[in-house]
Each structure stands twice: as C-alpha cells, then as structure tokens.
Amino acid sequence: MPITKSSIPPKKTMLPPGVYTPVISLYKPSKTQEIDLEAMYTHCQYLVKSGQHGLVYQGTNGEAILLSRSEKSSILQTARRAVTDLGVPDYPIVAGISGQSTNESIELANDAYQAGASFALLLPPSFWPKAVTEEVLVGFYTDVADASPLPIVVYNFPGVTAGVDLNSDDLATLAAHPNIVAVKLTCGNVGKAVRLTSRFSPEQFSVYGGSSDFLFPTLEAGGVGCVTGMGNVFPKATAKVYDLWVEGKKEEARALQEVVANAEWACKKSLALTKFAAGHFLGEKLGVRPEAFWPRRPYLPPAEKQREWTVGVMGVLEEEENAIAEKSLK
After folding, report:
1. Has 48 been labeled as part of a binding site?
2. Secondary structure (3-state) at 185
3. Selection from 44, 41, 47 nearest residue 236 by Cα
4. pLDDT of 225-254, one tens digit each?
5. Which of 116, 246, 262, 279 would disulfide-bridge 80, Cβ 3.0–4.6 Å?
6. Is CATH 3.40.50.300 the classification given to domain 18-323?
7. pLDDT for residue 2 is more than 80
8. How far is CA 16 from the centre of its chain?
9. What are the UniProt keywords, alphabetically (predicted)?
C-alpha cells in the first residue's frame, strides 16, 4: 500500500540543500577568552571557499550556551560580512536560537535576523524534561515559528536536551507550519528520516542528517544534506560526498563516505576533540594560533593522549582533503 503523501503547500523559503558546517567559536588567548572575530572571519571565508553549501552558527559546536547574546550577534554580523566580502552576499547562514523559554527563543530569532542570519535552528526546551510533553513541544515550536522573522529548522539532538526526542509524528505535525522548513536529525535515526521523506517532498519539509558519517544513507533515503562538525576540520571532503552524489557518481560518493565516516569517529567523542582537530589540521593554514581552538572555560582542551588518538583517527582523510581544489564562487 503506498504511503499517503502530504498535501501541504511548498514553503515560501527553503533552506538550500547540501552540507552545512556548525561553525566552532574561536577565542582570544586571554583569561576571559573573548571572541576572536578576526579569526572567525578568516575561518568563515575558508569554509565557503572549501565548498560548504551553508554555515550554522551558535549550535552545539558553536558552544552557544557559553556565549552572551551580544557575542552571538557579533559573530553573525562577522559571518555575513565575510561572505559578502567574498561576493556571495546571499550565502545561507543559519543561526541557533535555542532558549529554554519561548520568549528567549523569539528574542534570539529577532537578534539573529537583525544580525544578518537567513534561517534559525531551534532545539526543544529541556530544563524540566519530564514536563516536555508532545503538547509542550508542538506549542513551543508553533509559538516561536509564528513570531520568528526567520524560517525555522527543527534541531533534534536528545544528547544535549536531557533525552527530549521529537519523534516522526511530532515532526510531521510541525512540518505543516508555514514557517518551519526543515529538520536536522542529530539523533542519527535514519528510520525517522525515511518516514518523513516518504510523506513530504523537500519543497514541503526538508530532512538533514546531523553528521556526515551517514550523509550517503540520508541522501539515498530522500534527505537533502547534513549539518556536520567535521566541516570545521575537513570541509572540502565532507562537501564532496554530497557533490558526487548529486552528480550521479554514487560509487565515488560511497567510497569517500567510508573514509569520512571513519574520520568523524573522533568528532563523536567530544567537541574538544573536534576543536583540537580543526586547530591541528587547519590552524596553521588559517594563521590562527592553537589556543583559539580551545573550548571556553570551564571546559578544557583534550589531554595529549586524546590528541594523538584524534590525529591518528582523523588523519585518514587528510590526503583526500588536501587534493581537493577550492570552489570557484563566480
């Protein structure tokens, strides 16, 4: 029996398909670790020239919970200036607007819009997880989407929301909202992705994987891309998996996916390892000192043994990454 397709109209503005980097925050080597906007400008431009299809700021990898409201706006303004200076002023920039209250999330959405973001990424509330019923979830996203000047991408990541996990029925309900355009499934549930893509076209509600280690399966299942911390380290190779798949070169895409998946294992362990790897593999190339890639206190950089392990695991992708040319932006 065929699955009944949704009859909701296409959304007015959709998040463009592809691979997005949830950009890390870079800090000055001071006791208070002020945001290093110059370094973030340079990193932003490098990611764009490396073929990333869009960038996400103030997500989990961006340490959003550790940033002030004014810092978040400054980072977004810097990113928009960086892409404009590259000659791509309409490049998609997604801003995390996750707050524990509806009011806070709406405030962050308005801040992000004023700072130049083009889409908003929103986690569910989780301060009192036992009180987060389906009614609360649907009400929260509906209220924020009603008020947000930016289209909303639902961010489902139970690992950072005390286990709060939107199921496919919840997401199907939210998909009907005219200002909710996509979901990022960092839950890693490909079955959930299939259930959603079987009912909604990408023009109605787009499905993105939450990491690059299952990008190929996500695309095969009808998804349109992923948001991956790996992009901070190897942006060219992660984008190329998608590009090869779109070009119909599926065997090449699958082969590269295997290497990417093995390299991403280090990113799964901790954000500190992702940031260290970005500093190790990209820091010198960007002219950014290693301390800029340390987590913000109270969190600490990884110990030497963890660093050595990370270089060994992620190094399998270094040769492939260095062989890929930068993208022409013309």
Report:
1. no
2. strand
3. 47
4. 999 999 999 999 999 999 999 999 999 999
5. 116
6. no
7. no
8. 13
9. Lyase
Distance of alpha carbon 173 from alpha carbon 193, whole angstroms: 15
- Token digits of residue 265: 């294992």
Residues linked to residue 8 through DSSP beta bridges, in sequence order: none
Q: Which residues are catalytic?
A: 155, 184
Backbone φ and ψ for 119, nearest 5 degrees, come out as: -145, 165
- Taking the mean position of all CA atoms in its chain, how far away is CA 56? 5
- Predicted pLDDT at 251: 97
Tally Cβ neighbours within 10 Å of residue 4.
8
pLDDT at 20: 98
Note the pLDDT tens digit of each residue in 190-199.
888 999 999 9
How many CA atoms lie within 13 Å of 161's alpha carbon, on the beta-carbon side? 22
Residue 305 parent element (H or E): helix 304-314
pTM of the prediction? 0.96
CA distance 100 to 147: 16
Average pLDDT of the segment spanning 260-266:
96
Q: According to DSSP H, which parts of 152-279 are helical?
A: 168-175, 190-197, 215-220, 235-246, 250-269, 271-278
Q: Which residues are registered as beta bridge partners of 54? A: 20
Distance CA 167, CA 172 (A): 9
> What separation in angstroms does the CA of 113 have from each of 23, 98, 118?
18, 14, 7
Q: Which tokens hold the place of 235?
A: 């942006």
Nearest to 256 by CA among 213, 314, 220: 213
Write the pLDDT tens digit of every residue in 82-96. Answer: 999 999 999 999 999
**Helix or strand or coil: residue 92?**
coil
Residue 88 makes CB contacts below 8 A (sequence gap 6+) with 48, 329
3-state secondary structure of 198: coil
Dihedral sign from CA coordinates of 260, 171, 194, 202: negative
Place 3 in a pLDDT band, splitting at 50, 70 and 90.
confident
